[in-house]
Amino acid sequence: MPYPVNSNLVQQVVRDFEARLLGGDWKPGLRLPSERALAEQLGVSRGTVREALQRLAARGLLASRQGSGIFVTDLLQAGLVPPWRQLMTAHPELRADMLEFRRVLEGAAAYFAALRALPRDLERLGELLARLREARAADARDAEAHADARFHEAIADASHNSMFRHLHNSVLTLLREHIALNNAGLREGSDAGVAQQLLAQHESICAAIMAREAVAARSAMWAHIDYVREQLERRAEPAAAAAPDAAQDVTRAAARRAE
């Protein structure tokens, strides 16, 4: 829809582009349409679009690549991810905090996804669930972890809440790593039953969203996160019980060196 000619067109176009960035329509790495195409979409001149793009580029949200076009940067994500990713790897105990955070965020996202998902969102969820099934059947663990993370990302997108989508995108790399760490931890010393249970939980979440049952979708997400937490805690108990013995071994070794 064309903007009124008596408005501050550049600022309105900037706000339109900001909404696309915050809403997740323009994701990091995306190559933007040409100035001409954007101008035609908005009903403004190419000069107006060019000025709006330059303002966003000056703020680091967009970047121009010589001969390639204009791309979305990862500035909106970069601020939250690096320190937490390092801490998560170095301190496994932080996984419990992450699961608690995910329970709140993703439970709400599933609730609103059930209420607001568009047909294309439901189609995307179905495609990702199919990938999860295929990866599980082939025991392709890397592919399974990737599809798992994308499935949760798609739910955040389907919520059509800009804050959920922005927050989820901001910690997306961390969430993917967290899911991969969890999947690896759940596979240690376990049979295929846990993996099948995880798949069944994803199927329940997807079914509730597709049925437009918001409360059931949230409950299914909570049940999934709670199951992961309980399984990880159960696997951590033997290691915790062995810790005092390990500490005593270190103390005895140090005493022997001192003799």
Descriptive notes:
- It is built from twelve helices and two strands; from the N terminus they run H-H-H-E-E-H-H-H-H-H-H-H-H-H.
- A hairpin with a 3-residue loop joins strand 1 (62-65) and strand 2.
- The longest helix is centred in the C-terminal third of the chain and has 45 residues, at 214-258.
- It has helices at residues 9-23, 35-42, 46-58, 75-78, 81-90, 94-116, 119-138, 141-158, 162-170, 172-187, 192-210, 214-258, and strands spanning 62-65, 69-72.
- It has 259 residues and is mainly alpha-helical.
- 77% of the residues lie in helices and 3% in strands.
- The protein has a two-stranded antiparallel ribbon with strand order 1-2.
- The radius of gyration is 23 Å and the shape is elongated.
- The chain has two domains: 9-75, Orthogonal Bundle (Arc Repressor Mutant, subunit A), CATH 1.10.10; 79-242, Four Helix Bundle (Hemerythrin (Met), subunit A) (Up-down Bundle).
